[in-house]
Amino acid sequence: SQQGEEDPQALSIQEGENATMNCSYKTSINNLQWYRQNSGRGLVHLILIRSNEREKHSGRLRVTLDTSKKSSSLLITASRAADTASYFCATDWTGANSKLTFGKGITLSVRP
Amino acid sequence: NAGVTQTPKFQVLKTGQSMTLQCAQDMNHNSMYWYRQDPGMGLRLIYYSASEGTTDKGEVPNGYNVSRLNKREFSLRLESAAPSQTSVYFCALARGLATNEKLFFGSGTQLSVL
Lengths: 112, 114
Description:
heterodimer, A: six-stranded mixed beta sheet, five-stranded antiparallel beta sheet, 0% helix, B: mainly beta, seven-stranded mixed beta sheet, 48% strand
């Protein structure tokens, strides 16, 4: 499977703390994306990082990519209760006619 | 999830029944996708369409058919539903024809097959 694998599977933190989520993958990629899913809703795109980039920021989000280790991390700083959701990494792996493949997700709970 | 409309939101079928899940967009995007989401499995691609009139199989196409008659609409049909098709189904869009840029998702259809 070309799926990315997120780690940990579940994370519970206090409001105001930082949340770090990791994603590892197996094959070369063009880009890696992170999505958020609130309970009962569709996925929402958060951020995309290309294979030639090492770090990107978007508001309270910071994504890093280490292609030598085939891994990425998503950092949410100063977490809020509204950040409670599932987070998925999706990899666009190189290869003919490839499509985005999603990991199984990380459940983040932010306690007020 | 403005721009991507999925119908119905919920559906219960009996084994062997057929149904069509509808997806319509007003974002003028070229590529459309159908995913299913199962607990512990993440999202898996069923079918996709890079442009009007073209469709291709994804990771788990068996038991499904799709139709992309125009740019706006992409439907997913279950000809003879099975309990293994109980899942949440998501339609998604991407702007490009071949690039895997960000996806825009609908709010999903929760399907139960008894």
